[in-house]
Amino acid sequence: MMRFPSFPANAALILVASLIAGCGGSDDDTTSTTGDSASVDAVLPVGPAPSSDLDGVEEVGIGMGDMDPTTAPIEFDDKPAPIDAPNNAVSSRLDELEEQQDDLFEELQYKTRDLQDAMAAHVEEVAASLAALTARMEKAEAGINEANERLEALEKKITAVADQKARVASARAAARRDQPTAPFLLTGVESRGGIDYVGVTPRSATGLADIRFMAIGDQYQGWVLSGISERFATFKVRRETVTVPFSSSDPAP
Q1: Does the pTM exceed 0.90?
Q2: What are the pLDDT digits (tens) for 68-102?
Q3: I want to staple 227 with a disulfide (CB 3.0 to 4.6 A). Which of 133, 197, 234, 244 is the partner?
Q4: 138/164 Cα distance (integer angstroms)
């Protein structure tokens, strides 16, 4: 709201009259001056102005320059906020956001570094476990290979023994089929004068009178006694050696 300096009403009228008189013309034009003065006198009331009012006007210092509304000071009841206030608030908020961003970035760097360290330690542990597992697998594989080799050697031995037993059994079976059967039975061994004798009886014998005693070197039906033991006696017949057990008609194994 614009405010102007206040002054008395009579003083304002006097100032307006003085302004009109000053703009009336030159000093030579008396007629115009007289007419103007008369017109001014007719319009304005004649009388002395109060000295107190004039003194007040002089003290206030009112003039034409002071009455220019373009240069008069303007006062407002409500003062608006400074124009820089929003900018300051935005700048402050931006500074806070930048600080928060820096803090978050620093925290992210710390967490990333911790995560990288943890991952590196975990990778080292996994690598160590893998190396230990690889070593154990290699050792187990070597043990398995050694066991397989031993098993193969044992299988070869078993196969060789089985083949040998089969050959021996086959040879014995062939020998049994080929060797002649003794035509007599051995009843036992009897010692006389430090010499052992074998009791021999024909398969067709019917009594004790048919028993014959043979010493080593004696011959019976082409069978020559060559040896005597506790369980059997050996005879040579047709360039072969035949074992005959006691009290049995079958040859000893």
Answers
A1: no
A2: 555 555 554 555 555 567 788 888 889 999 999 99
A3: 234
A4: 38
